[in-house]
Amino acid sequence: MLGAARAIFSGITFTRTPYLTFCRYVSQNHGGQHTEVEIQAAKAWLATFSAEKVPKHLFDISYSRASGPGGQKVNKTSSKATVSLSSDRWLNPDFCYWIPPAIRSQLTSKKIRYETKSGGILLQSDSSRNREVNTAECFQKLIEEIKNNSHFAKEMEEEDIKKWEELKEESREKRLFHKKRQSDKKKSRSKKFDL
């Protein structure tokens, strides 16, 4: 077994630096470490982005017969909207350029509600008898789901930082006090008395 592994890797030399570079690349792109500028841009995007600003030409949009009551209108018109994006396009920076990198990395680690088993997304709506309204509703659902799954830590206020520093110092003092007390206890046990 070991001989086979040596035969496979005999022509390859391993060095430490490329591996570390690779690990650093992976952790920066998928680990959620982003610059402060990227995080601020992502927060601004979350606050202002709406379904109307989504580049709809990137998505596959199809229409089919809706279910439910509606009589002849339902039977004759295709008003149910299905919006999809294949797995090779969803969260790919070339196609999902409109989603900031800080949010894209969060969506990579957490599946959203409309993500398929293959890794793409699929949204459907047939709440209205109008196909444009249903299409807009699909994009609205997508934006709401992205916003619900994107979270950033709040910046700490000055008084909170001061409070945590005080707690840290107090904890340190207690620890040192108990450590000293335990040390004194052990020293008192080991003293020899001359009589």
Looking at this protein, list some descriptive labels.
three-stranded antiparallel beta sheet, single chain, disordered N terminus, Double Stranded RNA Binding Domain, Mito_Release_Factor_mL62, mainly alpha, 195 residues, translation release factor activity, codon nonspecific, 3 strands
Number of strands: 3
Low-confidence stretches: 1-32
- Classify the beta-strand content into a percent band: 5-15%
The CATH class name of one domain reads Alpha Beta
> What is the helix fraction of residues, given as a range?
40-55%
Biggest sheet record? 3 strands, antiparallel
Question: What would you say this structure looks like, in words?
Answer:
- The chain is mainly alpha-helical and 195 residues long.
- The chain has a domain of 134 residues: Double Stranded RNA Binding Domain (2-Layer Sandwich).
- 52% of the residues lie in helices and 8% in strands.
- It has a 3-stranded antiparallel sheet, with helices on one face.
- The chain is elongated and about 110 Å long.
